[in-house]
Amino acid sequence: MTYPEAIRYLESFINYEKIKKWPYKDSLKLFRIEGFLRAIGDPQESFYSIHVAGTKGKGSTCAFIAYVLRQAGYKTGLYTSPHLSDFRERIRILDGDTDEIRQNAEFEGMIPRKSLVDILTRLKPAIEKYNRRSKYGPLSFFEVYTALAFAYFKERKVDFAVLETGLGGRLDATNTVDSKVAVITPISYDHTDKLGNTLAKIATEKAGIIKRKKEKVKTQKLYVISAPQEKEAMAVIRKRCKKTGAKLYVVGKDIKYEEKKKGFDIRGILDDYKGINIKLTGRHQLINASVAMGALEALRSEGYDIPKEALRKGLYETFWPGRCEVIQRFPWVILDGAQNEASARALKTAINENFPYRKLVLVFGIASDKDITGTCRRLKGMADKVVLTQAANPRAEKPQSLARYFTGRDIYLSDNVREAKRMAFSLAGKKDLILVAGSLFVTGEFRNEKF
User: Fold this and answer.
1) Fold of 3-317
2) Which of 46, 367, 383, 389 has the most beta carbons within 10 angstroms of its beta carbon?
3) Residue ranges covered by each domain of the chain
4) How far is CA 184 from CA 312, 314, 342, 429, in A?
5) Is the peptide bond prior to 331 cis by the omega test (within 30 degrees of 0)?
6) What pTM did the predictor assign?
């Protein structure tokens, strides 16, 4: 199998990331991926997992945890979604050899093409056999890719794997792992057509990663680290922790942070950490870093050697593209995948507090199943001029449909991100700011589009 053949094979599976509407509970069958993983030897049982669910901040929190573990000397797998440019970004290994850290690498350690081809070639017969016999239907793209990630992490003998849920948590393909540390980032309204239209329903799906699946781990400690949550969501998390016997630590209550003129302090579960600095922009990243610190301290309490200096340096070294990422100055060009009201609110605060500018040109495109109303409501007030566009994804909302959310602003419509990028630079002066927001597919295309 060549690399192009591997791509075509992966694209032959149903990909819910490219479908506008689909039945959530009828489409995601945890039994299906569990059965396939058993057929290939349960590779997910070969490493220690930290599992992360939530609405916003999942990727950043995963990155914080993974970078610290790597700094502490552990070979660490990192599985996230979606991607910005190349779907190989989703599967990465951060090696424990700190002498080989590449400071400026954007997606260091992503699975090489050869490794992807080799593993997929080995898995293909098992996939074909399983799909012919499966009473739950054929595997999806995300399920195949998750199995591929687990097989790769097993082959490379990672010590830890930090896993971001794809959608929800309870029925997500990543929920086949037995994690001793479950992390819940801030929960807000997103994917309401699938997860439910109340915070309690959404939280129930997210909190599904808090579990004890195997009899052999019934007596082991289970840790849950949660970001601050709305009362409705926190009640669900607490109830789930009580049912599973998990020990819950909450940022703002058990783990506290305090912003300083330079950096911030964290009072953790085990220790105090003064003068922490991170490169990721925005106050919301202080919450993500504090949540990550809680997860790492849970590991420390289990006897894992994670020195304070590794915590400090790992948090600082963390890089997570596409989240309030500055890719240019004069004019400022900032990318952020804000696609619900809570994320847009955090982005607005981060822009106002960190970037001086004269006028703001907003480049915006979003998937049709996202929180369009809430996101646009928060971003509208920032923009002097708005360039509406769409990613090369069937789920993308048409720019013409988005225009009604930005009445009272100078609006420009573009058929694709390449055209939108040209428009934005023609509208912005050197003292202005171009903000690219909405779908990560839009920010990814903008980031990679050359002209």
Assistant:
1) UDP-N-acetylmuramoyl-L-alanine:D-glutamate ligase (3.40.1190)
2) 389
3) 3-317, 325-448
4) 22, 21, 15, 41
5) yes
6) 0.93
> What does the alpha-carbon distance between residue 77 and residue 177 come to, in Å, rounded to a whole number?
14
pLDDT of residue 98: 43
- Strand ordering across the sheet containing 325-328: 325-328, 332-336, 433-438, 360-365, 385-388, 410-413
Q: Please give the share of the chain, as a percent, with pLDDT higher than 70.
A: 96
Indicate if the pLDDT at residue 93 is higher than 80: yes
Strand 272-276 and strand 264-267: the pairing is: antiparallel
CA angle 166, 172, 176 (to 5 degrees): 120
Q: SS3 for 185?
A: coil
pLDDT at 302: 94
The pLDDT of residue 202 is above 90: yes
- The answer to whether 425 and 400 have CB atoms below 8 angstroms apart is no
CA distance readout (Å), 188 to 33, 54, 71, 256, 312: 27, 8, 32, 21, 29
Q: How far is the CA of 6 from the CAs of 1, 147, 249, 307, 348, in angstroms?
A: 6, 15, 43, 41, 40
List 79's β-bridge partners, or say none: 91, 163
Q: What is the pLDDT of residue 19?
A: 85
From CA 307, how far away is CA 230, in angstroms rounded?
33
Nearest residue to 179 (alpha-carbon basis) of 208, 140, 145? 208
Say how far apart CA 39 and CA 124 lie, in whole Å. Answer: 12
**For residues 342 and 370, what is the distance between their CA atoms, to the nearest angstrom?**
12
